[in-house]
Amino acid sequence: MFSTKPTKPTFKSYLPPVQTEKPIDPPIKKVEPRLLLGEIVVNEVNFVRKCINNENGHDDLWGKLICTNFKVSFIPQEDPPKQNAHLSHLLLAEHDVALTCLDQVVTVNDAKGKKKVLGSNQKLKFNPTELILYCKDLRIIRFCFDEAGPESAKKVCLAIAHYAHPADLHLLFGFEYQGRRYHERKAAAEINESMPRMSPQTPVYDCPSDWDREIKRTGATEWRVCSINERYNVSQSLPEYIVVPASLADQDLRQFANCYSDNRIPLWCWNHPNGSALVRMCNVADPIAQKKFEQRIFNAITKSHPTCSEVIKLDLEKSLPNILDIQSAFCKFRQSCVIDPFEESEERWFSCIENSRWLEYVRAFLKQSAEIVFLMEVKSVSVVITEEEDRDLNCAVSSLVQLMLDPHYRSLSGFQSLVQKEWVMAGHRFLDRCNHLKRNDKEECPLFLLFLDCVWQMINQYPAAFEFTETYLTVLSDSMWIPVHGTFLFNSCLQRTQHLTEFAKTKAIPPGEDQSVYFPPVWEWSQQFSAKEQTLFNNPMYVGKSVARVQNGEVKTFKRTKKAYSASVKGSPASVVNGLRDGEGTLSRRVSFMSELKPEFSSVKDVVESPSERFFRDWFSRPFDQQGLLLPLLLPSHIAVWKLFFLRWVPEACIPKGGTVTAYHKLCQLVDEIEMLQCQLKHYKGPSPCITPEPSPCKPHSVQRRMYFNACSADESPSLPDFLTSSFPFTPVGNLCRRSTLGTPITKFLNGAKIWLSTETLNDTV
């Protein structure tokens, strides 16, 4: 009997195969990461599945999971379709997460029912089947190791956990990256004989000239720049140069410093045109010293006022939540927004948001700031705000007060200088509050995020008063977790100087080189985004200091005065006059703030108005100047959830072709078209008696365009692009993967109703 088993061929052909009509499968793509300067691959694992859809695995991505000394990177085996709605980052790809952005690294073994939160240098006693990354920007990313090697999966999980917990600050990737980047740029710039420097639009307040310009801009003629803290001889948490009353001598300041925590001399923040000043300081522990030295300092502040007005001291710790309260509120708020499944929490979602107290704290900071605005604007008194260390609550309140009073800080460059002055240089402990080294969770607090939320509330209420957008605020918050710039990495100016000086030595950077050159601040946005992506920061509705107009072929400037503004909106609906959305009128604005100051005001007719109540009532009842004072609406119904930040990764909250982006898209196109017409009119030469007049259009306008969406051409459709969603320019696809999404209670009810109706119809037919 012969065997049916086929025999192996003994002849091997070395000729290339003959091409047939059947296409040959393309070779498997070599999956390689995109590495930055100084970035190295630490560990990797193949055949990993990134979860995209929980209902079925059809949309899941297969590829390689890589851990480097900078990020966790997932590289799909197949190139996904290009997404126009995705914000392109120059340092991070679509599926990348910076290691400093990781809040928790959780490994899961479904078979054994085990779950473990990994820390640095920890052992893992089981082979993980899943890896869940909880990120500080509120993303939740899930990877499955169905087909991956168990040992390789375990090693990459341990590597991610280890490098997400650096033992020291200098081990953060930014130090290696910026060292390599400096020398590469220096070599490329040798032909120009100079290194490119940061744009001067954002002062960093590390030299006397920056402070001098701010003094001159605000008209604080009775204040001076003091240099007694050069080389940090007096205080280790203050900048080298501070602004103090001109009547105080350096010798007196050295004497006063000894009674303050960390020798922090009171800091000047801002001067009102009427002469009142905003000053911040820490509390004095010794009551005797407090009475002695504070009186002399307050006398000096009084002398700096044109009318020698009194000084009012406010202790913010008595009226605002502390660091632990804010952290607790944020954790609860985040739990409701992104962690709890919607199908389980929809019915109690609003109560969970309210019980977290996050919006209550946002409202408290805005209310406290508005009260200080009244004291400075109406009473013309100088205000000194105090807290225990002058490095947390004071940062937020002083910034909000200046934002309400000074339109300069509502511009993009002005806002950046405000953050640099009141947060970075004033010594807010970003290293501890962001918990970059993950050493002490009790010190962690999203106070800067709370401040950005307060700013967003005002942008939401007055959309034409700010030059920047909520996308800018969101990106600024996300930048805290990208350790390639020096703005959010340190606790103080001294710590920054010490680390960057040591860094310069180890990287052979010449002594005396400007720190902003070899370790740029976050304000150099070209590090992270292209010029096109940066146009997302520009608000098309912004009403600046002047409005351009064209007369007789020349572009002139029309300054909109308060009188002209009031006349231009006379007779308009209240919602237009007051710059509000959703038809909110004058009455709602008046009642909102008055009910905050005195709940019974609107119901009791015989109540005598206080000066503050009268001021707020008058302000809310008349048209306001976009370039003047701004006061926030403070009824609970006016304080909203910052959806673009908190809900951008939640698929259930993503509205296709919905949300504020629809108006933003149309406004961008309108502004872009207006600017193109202005450019053409500016270059129009006018008719000539001998030559037929022809338009003199601008040269290609694409380089100069400020808006992200450009005006449509004649052959383009003006309709809304399909890729726009309420999460634009972010996309929730693949960023938040819950284990089961079976539908919300409303969906279940509707499905049940359909079944019931079909049954009733069937019975009637029978």
From TrEMBL:
Q: In what residue span(s) does the Myotubularin phosphatase domain sit?
A: 205-646
Q: SUPFAM superfamilies recorded for this chain?
A: (Phosphotyrosine protein) phosphatases II, PH domain-like
What GO terms fall under cellular component here? cytoplasm; membrane
Q: Which domain of life is it from?
A: Eukaryota
One Pfam family, short name please? Answer: 3-PAP
Q: GO biological process annotations for this chain's record?
A: phosphatidylinositol dephosphorylation
Family recorded in the similarity comment: Belongs to the protein-tyrosine phosphatase family. Non-receptor class myotubularin subfamily.
UniProt xrefs under PANTHER family: MYOTUBULARIN-RELATED (PTHR10807), MYOTUBULARIN-RELATED PROTEIN 10 (PTHR10807:SF39)
Can you name this protein?
Myotubularin related protein 10
Native source organism of the sequence:
Neogobius melanostomus
Q: What is the lineage of its organism?
A: Eukaryota, Metazoa, Chordata, Craniata, Vertebrata
